């Protein structure tokens, strides 16, 4: 399709061979086209409808638009992971309109076609790079417009907190954030809350929600809070500070 991103520079004769290893598929609202972490064998072109790209929640819980990273419309390409090792999808794709019609292209055969016709491959891949760059800039802009978008996690690093292991908690949190695809998580440090016997303390604040203070945190608990509360939105009640003795 010449209207499609990245394929606009090709002529009809140059596009024709791609049809031999492509097929048009239809999906209904709520259907998952592919899953985060799944084998990426296909490049996808949205012909009709709307698709959300989302990260999955821990424990197989159902996702919603709150987990959406990007929303795609007609003639947009997705499934870039099929072109780059290790060929694993980084997000899940969901049909969110009444119906989605998608052109599914065999990525392996597409790359073979590009190798046989380097000029065509160069033009298409150059177009893909421009598209990816544009979307990344749009994502950065949207993140910048919401300075406190999503979550703020504060590790309290007062003297008591550090003595109790706050540095290790911060290290675990930093590793989780670095390994996450989420762009809207803010990590900060804070001083002592005044509840020394409950240290290390961590405060999690999600957008439009009251902050939650966790007590007696360690690396394992921090990773759990990150997955379940920061990402999944579920407060870990058994770790919440119920009342502490002041320093």
Tag the structure with descriptive keywords:
single chain; 247 residues; alpha+beta; Jelly Rolls; Glutaredoxin; 2 domains; 4-stranded antiparallel β-sheet; elongated
Describe it for me?
- The protein is α+β, with helices and mostly antiparallel strands.
- The chain folds into two domains: 12-143, Jelly Rolls (Sandwich), CATH 2.60.120; 151-239, Glutaredoxin (3-Layer(aba) Sandwich).
- The protein is built from six helices and twelve strands.
- It has helices at 12-19, 107-116, 118-145, 159-164, 166-178, 219-231, and strands spanning 22-28, 32-34, 42-48, 51-54, 68-72, 77-78, 92-95, 99-106, 151-156, 185-190, 202-206, 212-214.
- The strands form three sheets. Strands 1-8-3-6 form a four-stranded antiparallel β-sheet. It has a four-stranded antiparallel β-sheet with strand order 2-7-4-5, with no helix packed on it.
- Helix 2 (107-116) packs across helix 3 (118-145) and helix 5 (166-178) packs across helix 6.
- The longest helix is centred in the middle third of the chain and has 28 residues, at 118-145.
- The radius of gyration is 23 Å and the shape is elongated.
- The termini are far apart.
- 28% of the residues are buried.
- Under CATH, the homologous superfamily of the largest domain reads Jelly Rolls
Question: What is the H/E order?
Answer: HEEEEEEEEHHEHHEEEH
**Which band does the percent of strand residues land in?**
15-25%
The CATH architecture term of the largest domain is Sandwich
Uncertain regions spanning at least 5 consecutive residues = 143-149
Globally, the shape reads elongated
Helix content bin:
25-40%
Number of helices: 6
Query: Which structural class is indicated by helix and strand composition?
Result: alpha+beta
Please give the alpha-carbon distance between the first and last residues.
68 Å
Number of strands: 12
| Main beta-sheet strand count, sense and barrel state | 4 strands, antiparallel
């Amino acid at each position: 399709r010449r209207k499609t991103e990245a394929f606009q520079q090709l002529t009809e004769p140059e596009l024709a061979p791609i049809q031999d290893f492509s097929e048009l598929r239809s999906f209904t609202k709520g259907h998952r086209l592919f899953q985060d972490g799944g084998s990426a064998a296909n490049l996808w072109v949205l012909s009709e409808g709307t698709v959300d790209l989302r990260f999955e929640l821990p424990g197989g819980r159902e996702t919603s638009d709150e987990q959406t990273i990007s929303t795609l419309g007609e003639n947009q390409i997705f499934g870039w992971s099929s072109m780059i090792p290790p060929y694993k999808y980084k997000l899940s794709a969901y049909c969110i309109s009444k119906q989605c019609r998608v052109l599914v292209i065999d990525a392996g055969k597409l790359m073979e076609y590009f190798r046989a016709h380097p000029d065509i491959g160069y033009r298409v891949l150059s177009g893909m790079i421009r598209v990816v760059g544009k979307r990344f800039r749009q994502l950065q802009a949207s993140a910048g417009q919401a300075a406190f978008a999503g979550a703020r996690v504060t590790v309290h690093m007062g003297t008591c907190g550090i003595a109790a292991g706050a540095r290790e908690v911060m290290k675990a949190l930093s590793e989780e954030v670095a390994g996450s695809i989420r762009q809207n998580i803010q990590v900060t440090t804070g001083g002592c809350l005044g509840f020394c016997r409950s240290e290390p303390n961590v405060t999690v604040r999600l957008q439009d929600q009251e902050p939650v203070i966790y007590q007696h945190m360690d690396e394992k608990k921090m990773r759990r809070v990150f997955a379940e509360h920061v990402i999944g939105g579920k407060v870990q009640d058994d770790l919440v500070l119920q009342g502490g003795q002041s320093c």
